[in-house]
Amino acid sequence: MRIFGGGLTVGSVYKLALRQLSGRWRLLITLLLTALPVIMGITWRLIEGDRFPDNDFQDLALNGMLAGVIIPLVTLAISSAAFSNEIEDRTLANLTLSPIPRWKIVVPKLLGALTVSGAFLVTSAFITSYIAFSGDLDAVLAVTAGAAISVALYSSLFVWTGLMTTRAIGYGLLYIFLWEGLFAGLVSGVRFLSLRHYSLTVMHRLDDRLFSTSEFLSTGVVTGAAVTVFVIFLALSIRRLRRMDVP
To answer: Which residues cross the membrane (predicted)?
Structure first.
């Protein structure tokens, strides 16, 4: 791995992360996945005309496809790879032996993952909601904000997972489909520990005309929980990088 001239800095690690996570095939697959809800929104508008989306569209396209599958899968594929190249190539020492604090390595890596995945996912959420809700700004803002929060939370989780194990994709898939998809959907008490539920709560609370429901947590509770989860996994990633054995 080549370190940028002038020494390792936060900026150089961030640029390195962007370059590593922007492979042609990874971006192509991401583009195809994030295009699916947009296509569904266009299809809905062509079929239904000016009628606002009903609960079936919200459950299928927004809650199910976008929040339940596409966002976690894309962030898993990108964020878990933030350190994988260095770990697999045994070049992580080039980063960890540099005389800079570990947080100055983890934070730009996380920001790189957020930049790459967020550029596609947040844009997809914005376009889908803009088309489906005929440009209703409150609905568009609610869906886009929920997607952005979901990307941030999943990214912090999966960057840490990628540092913990070389099987991050496998464990991540189990988490997405078993915990988020099955248990959190069937057991109401588990939803407090569901990242997907946090993002959906933000969406529902930001636009109480279209999305409001009593099943979701309060705004204050979910905001505090989301910030706490993000900070915890960021701190765990920094701690892991400090303590892991680097070949």
So the answer is: 25-44, 64-83, 110-133, 139-160, 172-193, 216-238
Predicted confidence (pLDDT) per residue in 155-199, tens digit: 999 999 999 988 999 999 999 988 887 776 666 666 677 888 888
Other residues' Cβ atoms within 10 Å of the Cβ of residue 5: 6
Q: How far is the CA of 7 from the CAs of 1, 12, 99, 165, 189, in angstroms?
A: 13, 8, 10, 28, 49
| Rounded Cα gap, residues 213 and 55, in angstroms | 12
Backbone angles phi, psi at 101, to 5 degrees: -60, 150
The pLDDT assigned to 54 comes to 67
- Contact (Cβ atoms closer than 8 angstroms) between residue 141 and residue 207: yes
How much is the pTM? 0.90
Listed in sequence order, the DSSP H helices in 62-102 are 71-79, 84-88, 93-96
Q: Where are the beta strands (DSSP E) in 68-169?
A: none
